[in-house]
Amino acid sequence: MTEYLLNRDLQTGIYETFEFDEATGDITIRRWADVQPVLDANKSFHLESDGKGKDAWLAARIPDNIAQDWLVRFGINAWKGEHWPAVKKLLQDPEWKHLRPTSFKL
Question: Cβ contacts of residue 94 below 8 Å, gap of 6+?
Fold first, then answer.
């Protein structure tokens, strides 16, 4: 199987690759990102701060590929205001707790 890098977004850390399986002729395009730096920043912020900024509280950091996953899996667009109740519910789910750098109630 041969894999080629199609795109790498330095700002978001998102990679896109193209794979071709010579044996079957299958083509796979994958899109992925390393979200560990965001999760580490959230954990660090949680330990060092109460979440209060100068003018606002930081509720969450949602990497682009997680937002895309929510859109595909649940039909929830993290960047649309009318989807806020569903985003809020996901952010309160223990599965997604590391997207929140603070523990104040949303």
Answer: none
Enumerate the domain spans of the chain: 1-33, 35-106
> Who contacts 19 (Cβ-Cβ below 8 Å, separation ≥6)?
1, 2, 3, 4, 27, 28, 29, 30
Residue 33 predicted with pLDDT over 90: no
Contacts made by residues 27-34, CB under 8 angstroms, sequence distance 24+: 31/65, 31/68, 32/65, 33/63, 33/64, 33/65
Kindly state the tokens that stand for 81.
Answer: 């205001």
56-97: pLDDT as tens digits = 677 888 888 888 889 999 999 998 999 999 999 999 998 988
Query: What does the pLDDT read at residue 82?
Result: 95
pLDDT of residue 51: 52
Residues 6 or more apart whose Cβ sits within 8 Å of residue 1:
19, 20, 21, 22
Token pair in block for residue 15: 């990679």
